[in-house]
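We read letters as residues; the fold follows as tokens. Both lines appear below.
***
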Amino acid sequence: MPKPAQYRTGSIIYFQGDPAEKIFILQTGKVNLGYQDIESGAEVRDAVQPGEFFGVKSALGRYTREENAVALTDATVMVFTVPEFEAVAMANSRIIMKMLKVFSNQMRRVHKQVSKVMAKDEQEPADGLFQVGEFYLKNKRYAQAKHVFSRYLTFYPSGKNAIQASKNLEIAEASLTRYGDGKSAGAGGPSLSASLDSGETSKAFSAAVSLVSQGKYQDAFMAFKKIVDANASPDWTAKASFEIGRCMFLLEKHEECIKYYTNMLTKHPKHPDLKETMYIMGQCNEKIGRTDQAAAFYKKILSLGGAADDTAIIKAKRALSLLGAQGA
């Protein structure tokens, strides 16, 4: 059965990025939902009125919270689990209609904001799409960012933001794989002892990924190296080994990166990041002028096959297309 909960003025009901396991209906008081405008990045606040529900979309969709929910006054809130809310909604068509109305209004608002971004006279469609991707990446909505940057590279492989879109796509995909959508790693990160348990390694790895996203590549390199040296588990060691090479590439140590990855793949020919490794090796060869070797790596990625939205496939196709254009 749903249970009432009391919140004092200024209390946080949930934060953006929190797991979404509950649905709320405001009985008394005032609650505000705060989120960022997709166009300007400014904070937007929506007031929840008594009798209205909130937190539904993320709970039913099983993704993290998209906004902060704050009690503006002392408030009484009914708290439902997802099964409890579904049972109540199925028995009451008015709740379903109200839910559809709320979702419809939200979708119209998002559509209007995206349309404004895309339709600015001084802005090309490609620029608008890129900016939407950057908005999602900035707000740690990695699944959406991955989708947008993938579409950008598909439609505008030679666009002026293609290089940055490719880098952002890597960050979004790595972040999504490493610690899920809507989550973030701390800037500092824990220290590593000679041996680590799984929980400590996970936190240390997330912190190292965060250092990469901040452009602190040398610090990230050292953090990943500590994880490899600790050798806590084969999975974490494999992931950190790949990231060490990526840091070398980002530090523009292209020859060293090729040698490092060659050694890594010799020892682990079925490495879980095989395609991404070969893509970076191709990029390194491009940087030092060995375009034939670069093309060979990209073609090898394509020969391995994969889904249409496979990041490595998308990037390899784009890289081959650019090499062809340069040679024409």
The first helix runs from residue 56 to 61. The chain has 13 helices and eight strands. The beta strands are 3-7, 12-14, 22-28, 31-36, 43-48, 53-54, 68-71, 75-81.
